[in-house]
Design goal:
- The complex is a heterodimer of chains A (about 270) and B (about 375).
- Chain A is α/β, with parallel strands linked by helices and about 270 residues long.
- Chain A has eleven helices and ten strands.
- In chain A, the strands form two sheets. Chain A has a six-stranded mixed beta sheet, sandwiched between helices. In chain A, strands 2-1-4-5 form a four-stranded antiparallel beta sheet.
- In chain A, a hairpin with a 1-residue loop joins strand 9 and strand 10.
- In chain A, helix 5 packs across helix 6 and helix 6 runs parallel beside helix 7.
- Chain A is globular.
- With about 375 residues, chain B is mainly alpha-helical.
- Chain B has two domains: about 280 residues, ABC transporter involved in vitamin B12 uptake, BtuC, CATH 1.10.3470.10; about 80 residues, Winged helix-like DNA-binding domain superfamily/Winged helix DNA-binding domain (Arc Repressor Mutant, subunit A).
- Chain B contains 17 helices and four strands.
- The longest helix of chain B is centred in the C-terminal third of the chain and has 27 residues.
- Classes of the chains: A alpha/beta (about 270), B mainly alpha (about 375).
- At the A-B interface, helix 4 of A face helix 8, helix 9 and helix 12 of B.
């Protein structure tokens, strides 16, 4: 077990869900992630937080091999990704696909089963039932046959989550699952994340809303090209660490945060 | 086999194989790649010819397929460099390869029977008389064997790899994460497009191939929201264009391939105008209905807010609408019993008030 300051505490003896070592990613000659070491414990909801351009999405993509790594390695439950594909589910940003594609909500969800089917095998009746069950879990059962462009942004996000559920993974990478969704969807996603954690699964999510980090997640990874800090929210999500993550921009940020904290009772009322 | 039947079968095979692959090209926003490939395979054909010394189809298909894949590779590499955009990189790659082909043929093969006309503009009208022979036996028209074989291969490919093609077209990121190499699938698809394009345009000419790759899939996409239906519809439209085009060419005594491509265009035009939900007419009607409803609602709201009957002139002044449009909106409201004329003015009826409340337009807060 690693003992440097950046590794987070995990149950003694437990293999980390994700272990990142010396990870550097560059786009052309510009480094996007620099020499990252981190070890993420299993069974937690882990937020990746940092300013725009901090490399949050890149971290997820590089770990999954979707963008090339310049140096370093990433292990999932002690093994490289290629051996653990089936254990890892990925929810990309909603904008990453063309929602005008001629297909139905149920069809998109059943794509989550393709990994288990492997090459050439077609989904059968039992797979269809499994996909329907996943739609049910995100409260979208009534929309199974709906063409995906006719869904709202929040509904599309829930379809993506249902697809991830269909993957039946032990670890989920989610790229901004809460971005631009309505209040209903936000609650539905949160309940889903908590249910996943209760089942002992791990969720690593890029998250933008600093206000809700402590409420939604129990661990946090603070990132700004380099790893600033990682660990339990209570001890890691501190003003000092945020200051180090956001640098000069935090003056604006803390003012905004303060204003928001003052408004919060009202904001809550309106949301409920 | 009658010549007409041969022409229809060859045209149908080309239309169907182009339609099934074209669906994926259109969905991947690569519609023009088919056009580019139909030109850039020329050096492959020339090199195959120079090596074998014959106009044998198989080596030419192999050479063309290799150049097709090279085209895709170069287009992607240029696009990835981010120095030029995707459309420009297509436009940069194919003229270069095409010109290399032209130079090769004009320098080394001009004296033999591999002329540009023949390579680029195969003529579907001649297909019944170009007969394949083996061991002295006639096996039927050569073009029918080629296009039929290509169609069979394309159908098998799309049926076998349907799930993989769908996933990697819709979400390449997930496809990669799940272990279905989207790059491999992309090259398989593009290899198939190259072979299809060459097999077809050698028989029927480039214009028909390019048209059938794009037009039926584009029309089909306006009629359905399911990938499987889109494939079937695109094939049916391609076949309809083939049959209709042949009929038109006989009637007008003109180029058969040209007529088939033109009929495909006409089919697209009708679909574009008349498709039930995505067609232009349906959209215009929908927009007009919405606008009329909005106008009615605004007038009703104003009448409700002002309480007492209001003269038409006041409404005209307040809304500043075209007088004819205002009258139309008022007549509609009167006909529906939502507004009545009273003491020379207009007043909202109880039904009108109910309609507004049902539309969620309760009292406007002042």
């Amino acid at each position: 077990m690693k003992s440097d300051a950046t590794s987070v505490k995990s149950p003694a003896g437990a293999v980390p869900a994700v272990e990142i070592h010396d990870l550097t990613v560059t786009y052309r000659t510009k480094p996007v992630l620099w020499d990252l070491d981190a070890s993420l414990p299993p069974g937690h909801l882990i937020a990746i937080v940092g300013p725009n351009g901090a490399g949050k999405s890149t971290l997820l993509k590089a770990a999954l091999g979707l963008v090339p790594r310049s140096t370093g390695w990433v292990k999932f439950f002690g093994q490289p990704y290629e051996k653990q594909r089936r254990l890892v589910g990925y929810v990309p940003q909603r904008e990453s696909v063309d929602w005008d594609f001629p297909t139905s909500a149920l069809d998109v969800v059943s794509m989550g089963l393709y990994g288990r089917l492997g090459w050439l095998r077609r989904p059968g009746r039992r797979d269809r039932a499994a996909a329907e069950a996943c739609l049910q879990k995100v409260g979208m059962a009534d929309f199974a046959g709906r063409q995906i462009s006719q869904l709202s942004g929040g509904q599309q996000q829930r379809i993506f989550l249902a697809r991830a559920l269909a993957q039946d993974a032990r670890l989920y990478f989610m790229d901004e699952p809460f971005a631009g969704v309505d209040a209903t969807t936000e609650r539905a996603i949160l309940e889903l994340l908590q249910a996943l954690r209760a089942e002992g699964r791990t969720v690593v999510a890029v998250h933008h809303d600093l206000q809700t980090v402590a409420e939604y997640f129990d661990h946090v990874v603070l990132l700004n090209m380099r790893l600033v800090a990682a660990g339990p929210v209570a001890t890691t999500f501190t003003d000092e660490n945020l200051q180090r993550t956001y640098g000069g921009r935090l003056t604006v940020l803390s003012q905004a945060a303060e204003a928001l904290t003052r408004q919060k009772p009202f904001a809550r009322d309106r949301a409920s | 086999m009658s010549p007409a039947l041969v022409i229809l079968l060859v045209g149908g095979a080309v239309a169907a194989s182009c339609a099934v692959l074209g669906v994926f090209l259109v969905l991947r926003r690569l519609a023009l790649l088919g056009d580019a490939i139909s030109h850039s395979v020329l050096p492959g054909i020339a090199i195959a010819f120079l090596f074998t010394g014959t106009r044998n189809t198989l080596p030419m298909l192999v050479g063309a397929g290799a150049l097709g894949v090279l085209t895709v590779f170069l287009v992607e590499a240029l696009g990835r460099s981010r120095r030029v955009r995707e459309d420009a990189s297509i436009g940069l790659v194919f003229p270069v390869l095409f010109s290399i082909g032209v130079i090769l043929i004009s320098r080394f093969a001009y004296h033999v029977d591999l002329d540009l006309d023949c390579v680029l503009y195969g003529e579907i009208a001649y297909t019944p008389w170009d007969v394949l022979t083996a061991g002295g036996r006639e096996l039927g028209p050569r073009a029918l064997w080629i296009t039929g074989g290509v169609l069979l291969a394309d159908l098998v490919l799309v049926l076998v790899l349907y799930k993989e093609l769908k996933l990697s077209t819709f979400d390449p990121g997930l496809a990669a994460a799940l272990g279905f190499s989207p790059v491999l699938i992309h090259y398989i698809l593009m290899g198939a497009v190259s072979v299809t394009v060459v097999g077809a345009f050698e028989s029927v000419g480039a214009i028909l191939v390019v048209a059938m790759l794009v037009v039926p899939p584009a029309a089909a996409s306006l009629l359905t929201e399911r990938l499987s239906h889109m494939l079937v519809l695109a094939v049916l439209m391609g076949l309809a264009a083939t049959a209709g085009g042949y009929g038109a060419a006989r009637l007008l005594d003109c180029s058969i391939a040209g007529a088939m491509a033109a009929v495909a265009g006409v089919i697209f035009l009708f679909t574009f105008l008349l498709a039930p939900s995505q067609g232009l007419v349906a959209r215009l009607l929908r927009r007009r209905r919405l606008r009329a409803r909005l106008a009615g609602r605004l007038l009703m709201l104003h009448l409700r807010e002002s309480g007492a009957p209001r003269p038409r002139s006041e409404l005209a002044r307040r809304f500043g609408w075209d007088p004819a449009a205002l009258d139309r909106a008022l007549h509609r409201l009167q006909a529906e019993g939502l507004v009545v004329v009273e003491n020379g003015g207009l007043r909202l009826t109880a039904d009108g008030g109910l309609t507004l409340r049902e539309a969620g337009l309760d009292e406007i807060a002042h």
